[in-house]
Amino acid sequence: MNIPKWLSFGHLNGFFTGLKALVSPREYRPEYPISSEERADFPFTVTYTGLPTPTPYNPFPAYDSVDYTLRYHEVEKCFLDKDGKVPVPSIYAYPGVVQGQPRHIIGSYEVLGFRDDVCFDRFGRFGPYGLGYTIEEGGFGAGLDTENEGSEVVWESTGKIDYSAVDWGDAQTRCHQANQHRFHDAIEHGEHLPSFSNEPSDLPRSPRPSSSQLTERETLPRTAIVIRAYTGYLWTAHAVLNVRAMISEAALSSGAEYSVHILLHVRDDHEPIWADPDTVQEILDRFVPPEFHDICTLWSEAQMRVIYPVRFGPSFRNPSGTDIHGELDMRWLGHYYELFDRLDRWSRQQTRIEMWERAAKYYIPAYHGSWVNFTRLVHNETINSGQVPIFGSVEFPGRIPTRSEALGNTFLPPSCEPSALQPDPDPVLSRCGVGEPADLITLNPLFDPDASGWVFEADVTGYPLDLPIPPRRTSIVTASRLSRRLLSVMHEETFRHGHAMFVEMFPASVALHHGLKAVYAPHPVYVDRAWDVASVDQAFNGGRGKTTSGPGSPFGLRNEHNHKGTTWYYHSEFAGLLWRRWLGYAQVDGRVWTTEVYEDGDDGGLGGSRNRGGGELRGGIGEESRPGSTGRMCLRSMLLHPIKWEHPNDPM
């Protein structure tokens, strides 16, 4: 029996040290990754006899500053209630990092602009939204069965807000109405069109601003955050808290820069959701909490067949006999505005030169060094391989141009015009595409699925079977940002030509085919074991040309097990374990297991799952409250996926 190499590495324990071991960033020493000479003894001792004090966390621009108001329009404050008396609460963070807490091994806080010098406990993160107080007080009752020393500070400013009568749709509408002077219309600004034309065209374009307009303040775009749900989804207390947090932080606190929507898949095709308001209301009453009714849009496959009446051609190969539905099973242990805003800012600074080659590789700072070093490495590997870097649209047999492309338009911006490019553009110094928002931002690498072993690599529909399968790119986990123009091109491909691919492959492949800007944002990913750093690169960049593509891909069926102990992958076990321990619930920890009991499909001793033997219960109120304990956990911002259950009493 072949034992996965990662099972030979020891488990990391520093994640579970609590708040009383908080130290300043200068004093902080991570458990991992460090050299053998740096390795310290664990556990670290208690630093505080009591608890440190958290402070409100503010990741926003200085909206009231002179610099901001000279460039942009003023931000009007938004409220939870119609009377303007209940302000949007702040979340709280602790200044510092828990001593000994492991660092991430993949991705970077610094590169994306996330703060890594603060941490969040469960009450600072979700207490403002109803965690930690009773239903009678307007909360959810969740968290009352966990250790809560010092948690009262998060309600000192706003009190315990009564959420029983909050209508999030109305709150978002009022917020947008108060701030609509800040924003421009996406269609009027041509955001659904190519940004550069080689030839004159009759397509409408945004007028070039006059000299007087150049002195006017700038308007901003808005972004829709779409959460996919389905009839039958179990709305737990923590799921509701998570959506409340997203609306409060991204939409209301930003003065309507974002709006949050729930797209509800009605799985019964016989429900006339487009024709009968009573049916719609009945479905909402059954399957969606009342506070979210006004932000919910229903859809069904029967409805899609009306919208897309084209007869789809045969597939190259579709191994799936069922539909895959995205769920509300992702968590961001941090402030949502910081997540969305920093991803956007970072994407704008990325050059288009060798963007596909960089996006195909995991960034491992402890192995690759700085982002500049990583960029140079990708450049050298690409040149040495003899491959020609992808630039602009990709030609292949059977490719059909969009209507816009047929008129001579391109999605390349002016900074990428031939006259603006050097003969051999430097990917570090090139300005091609810099300042341009990305059409696609993914949270895992954009890999070539061909011969990768990924189960859906040939799930391509509607393209001629007598021609080679089109070139493709894929990013696992259906969490991404898509521009209006990418969505428009995808719609045209489907509506006009009957083209479709597996959900995690279609957006990236359309961007590849038509030359849109696509980036993989290297967010911080943690592992539960002390991997040798070189082994991380071998496992996660073990595909063709030391990337995630082709044979040896970490996304192939034979290699996906390497993700079991990470914090971000669709079948990760560690993500759920870490989340539930952070929430304050004891978990079955299988670290007494050895490699001798490993079986294919096992979780490698991660524990946390129910009905799984071979472990002991760790964490929870007993461990966090006992004398000498360091208290409840406090973690830095991180993405966690999947979260299939939270409270011990939740059904899976």
UniProtKB/TrEMBL annotation:
Biased composition (Gly residues): 604-620
Region described as Disordered: 194-217, 600-630
Pfam families: DUF3405
Compositionally biased intervals (Low complexity): 200-212
Entry-linked InterPro entries: DUF3405 (IPR021822)
Name of the molecule in the record: Uncharacterized protein
Native source organism of the sequence: Chaetomium thermophilum (strain DSM 1495 / CBS 144.50 / IMI 039719)
